Amino acid sequence: MSEKDCDNESCSALNVPDFKNALKEFQKLVEKTVTQKTEERLGLYIKDDDYDNNNLDARTECGAVSSQVQEENIVFLVSEKQQITHPVVKRRDVIKSIVEVPHLDFTVTSSQKGVLTIFNNQRKSFFSYPFHQDTAWITGCDLLTQMECVVAVTERTIINNCFIIKPMENGLLCVCTVTMSDHLADDNIIMGDDKGYVHLLKMTGDHFGLKQCKGKKESQVQILDSKNFNIVKRKLHDDWFVKVKYISDLNCFRSCSSDSIHSFVLDDIKRLEDSLPVKEFSVPRGLNAFTYCGKAKVIVTGG
After folding, report:
1. For 72-87, what is the mean pLDDT?
2. Residue ranges of domains in the chain, CATH in brackets
3. Most CB contacts within 10 A, which of 79, 88, 142, 210?
4. Is 57 exposed, middle or buried (0-12, 13-18, 19+ CB in 10 A)?
5. C-alpha–C-alpha distance, residues 243 and 174, integer Å
6. Exposed, middle or buried, 187 (CB in 10 Å: 0-12/13-18/19+)?
7. Up-side HSE of residue 176: CA atoms within 13 Å toward CB?
8. Of all residues in the chain, what percent are helix, strand and coil, respectively (each to 5)?
9. Residue 151 above 70 pLDDT?
10. pTM of the full predicted structure?
11. Given pLDDT bands bounded at 50, 70 and 90, which one contains residue 113?
């Protein structure tokens, strides 16, 4: 065996243990990365500053992770995840809608089976009662600020403490309140359905006789025919609605859908009453969520 061959064999012998060690370290790194990514998706991961000197603040809310590397690069910062025990909600029931009411400092939630709960700013339940006893599931709710009551929608009805409007032509999936500056005494609601239509219903306390019906029992709730109401309807999406909200600062409504062509719509509330084109954009496979930040003047969407 030549001297050159001996040198190569010696180098190979020396490099094999180093290679095996490096391979083990790489495997550990891969496993750690996979675990970290899994925990991030579950909202369980907290960055270890000793492992990485980058000061990363990881906070979670509803399973989403927000991180910051440098303070000047912060765009959004969310609060830590908090679990709230809800003893009133029955087994196999789920929360379908959460509405924050900043000016009254409380949050309203409605469950799928019709339990309405109001939380104060400490997130402690101080008022909860069965809101809806029908077999149809609640799909969304919001607060009527002028009428001082909650309105909710099911698959075919619009319900309140004092009235039920039915039947609706399509299945209602979401609802939100619209209080316009030129109609402060009225509470309008917009609803999205499973056919891609948005519905605008103008509501007043006198119209529904809420002053007279506040003292009535649940068995005395008014049943109102939807055909007797002037409900404006316009098709915006080619698939079902996922969410609809109103931005009072912009006097605009916004809606999203799983529709790949008409995924997101943002326009003046007056567009619901005419046939003019609306402002929209498309996203492959549509959108599932969005939110608006008034301070930053940005809208964030999620597919």
Report:
1. 53
2. 3-73 (no CATH), 95-302 (2.130.10.10)
3. 142
4. middle
5. 6
6. buried
7. 22
8. 20, 35, 40
9. yes
10. 0.64
11. confident
